[in-house]
Give the backbone structure.
Amino acid sequence: MAGNTTPVSDENQPPKADGSIAFDNSYARELVGFYVVQAPAVAPTPSLLQFNVTLAAELGLDPTVADQAAAVFSGASLPTGATPIAQVYAGHQFGGFSPQLGDGRALLLGEVIDRAGMRRDIALKGSGWTPFSRGGDGKAAIGPVLREYLIGEAMFALGIPTSRALAAVATGETVYREVPLPGAVLTRVAASHIRVGTFQFFAARGEWDKVQKLADYAIARHYPEVAAAQNPYLALFDAVCRAQTRLIAQWMGVGFIHGVMNTDNMTVSGETIDYGPCAFMEAYAPGTVFSSIDQTGRYAYANQPQILGWNLARLAETLLPLMDTDEGRAVAVATARLQGIAGLYRAEWTDVMRAKLGLNGIDAGDAALAEDLLAAMVGQNADWTLTFRRLSTAVDGDASLLAPLFDDPAMLMAWLPQWRARLATDAAARMNRVNPAIIPRNHLVEEALAAATGGDMAPFRALLATISDPFGDVAGREAYALPAPSGFGPYKTYCGT
Ligand code: AMP
Ligand code: MG
């Protein structure tokens, strides 16, 4: 280095074969012992299904990466600077603890600093066997890959923190589930892939030095402001509680049901991650469950806030020795925090509902007002999305578009005057900015995925385009705004394995 001080201009540099992803892989560098190095399986004949040009630009990727996307984002050609690793984690699955899960079908290629200065993970999902694959093949089929792509982009467009899809590539390989299916790899971008279950893995083994190392890493990466706190680990826990509480309140606001809120699927960053059997609720019914494996309704729509608290309690357990060297004091402080989650959630939810209802300022009766609307909706086949969207047409007293959404609108009609008394100026316009007209409707998602599995990407692309503009006018895309026809359902979703 010392002998060569002549600056070399960029023009003199040969172009990198991989489109120049400027990786900076802090997890691989700083957290040795938290992962295994693993090369992706080489896809035999990769072909690009979808590439997220705007996300690529946001990440600061060289536009030429799109030309090689099929090879790079299928694992067939490893980009320079990538250090593919499978991260280890544990997790409570449906309440039962699995001491070792880990990336069984995913690989973190590395991290980039995006245009906004944020560190983002770029990871493959469906890229083949890893030491954590257990009985699985580490592969993924086109359907689940595109479902994750679509729902993640929908959540992003709705303004909800989420991992996002950068690319979907068909591998040219057949994967065997109940039936043979075309294989695919998803490239996922996330603030990080640190899960509650990552902490659990090391805590369960009593490796407290590693728990602390992970906590320090999580603080530096996601919550640098808490490093200066008197008790940084308690402050980290508080920060995760706030982020996750806000996130679940936002899910509830749009009727999103994750389906597998296991602790390994809950991030420390506060982003939604691991889209498997997730779906959006149509008719409001608190007990709605779509996942075929959720037999008891543990992760039903209305249970999500309670599971949030349960999962945060599991995170707290892993941080106890860091929160206080005295176990009794640590338990006392963590217990007090956990007892506060319900109140924290209720405040966030009330905030979300206040915006959805277009309310003016803050009033002590706001949560009750929102709950009264839910009471009017329940059992009435009232579509969650359309009810809130059309509420904006009723600000001046005209319920002609809203009332027909209810089997019996009597309770709704009694509720409307109380609501109108609380409206903000400009309520209708404000409401239309937070209440989507368009969500990924279950029947359309299924249609799009079935077509893509058969080789036709057109319905997927059309659906992706429309869900990317959830708050815009419905004119010209009315069919996308309607709930499933009565012949569709009961809707069941399956895990994306
Ligand atoms: P998930 O249901 O996506 O949260 O995954 C739970 C666990 O199962 C994780 O450790 C995954 O890596 C693993 N897993 C899921 N599908 C597969 C697969 N096809 N092959 C290997 N491991 C898998
Ligand atoms: Mg998972």
Summary: The longest strand covers residues 164-176.
